[in-house]
Amino acid sequence: MDAREFHLHNGKKGSALAVRVKNRSGRDEIAEILPDGTVKVNLAAPADDLKINQSLVNFLAEVLEVQPNRIEIVAGARGQDKLVSILDLDTFEVQERLLRKVT
Questions:
Q1: Among 15, 54, 56, 78, which is most buried by a count of CB atoms within 10 Å?
Q2: Cα separation of 6 and 75, whole Å?
Q3: Is domain 14-99 in CATH 3.30.1200.10, yes or no?
Q4: Within 13 Å, how many C-alpha atoms sit on residue 43's CB side?
């Protein structure tokens, strides 16, 4: 059997965050951390997927103290349950910053 050569590349470093969004709330806020670790976020955004997603990215950027271009919705763009990627911020720091904002 021939040895196969692999070309590996360094991936981006960061964290993934499970988020459940409730839109048309009175204000943007971290409502709670659910038992499974999902972060429940209330947003004032109307019922429009594009506006909800942009509001979520902007809100999380503010809460996590990162630029919005460091946050990406990688799954669930059309639903209330989303998977969000945060670049250049480790899971410990994400958790610390979120817990400071839980209402």
A1: 56
A2: 28
A3: yes
A4: 25
